[in-house]
Amino acid sequence: MAQNSLSNTSDKLPSHEVLKDVPDNLKELIADNGKNLKSIRCSTCKSLILNKDTASLVKRETFLPYPQQKKNQKAEEAEGETVNSFWHVQDMYTFENVGFCKTIGTVKFLMCADCEIGPVGVCDTRGPRDFFVSTDRIAHEN
């Protein structure tokens, strides 16, 4: 169980950078132009989240709560994990299917709009043009 780092929000916007040393499990997912080679889908219902060739792979250390926790649970008590690799888009209209769930501090969590499973990613409200979808929380398909 990872410690929740959501309660430690600072005024500094978390940084992200293009992932240069791509882990072996992600190499087959990146096209020559650095974009996603396969479509990005919900791992539960397979609903399309992002089309291929729309997102860049970036490194960003971010806490994501585990899916399906108690609805009445306090945000600072959420259990989760720190995720380090994300698909990044700069326009919410790039998404084919995404919803926004709970906002904690300045972090708005992304979920599948069809089955409402999430969070699959984050958007920091201080940088509203940056959306991050965890490579670990979605499925990649042709």
What does this structure look like?
The protein is mainly β and 142 residues long. The protein has a single domain (24-141), classed as Metal Binding Protein, Guanine Nucleotide Exchange Factor, Chain A (Beta Complex). 3% of the residues lie in helices and 37% in strands. The chain has one helix and ten strands. The chain has one helix at 24-27, and strands spanning 17-18, 39-42, 48-50, 56-65, 80-89, 99-104, 107-111, 121-124, 131-134, 138-141. The strands form two sheets. Strands 1-4-5-9-8-7-6 form a seven-stranded antiparallel β-sheet, with no helix packed on it. Strand 2 (39-42) and strand 3 (48-50) form a beta hairpin. The longest helix has 4 residues, at 24-27. The protein is globular. The model has no long low-confidence stretch (mean pLDDT 83).
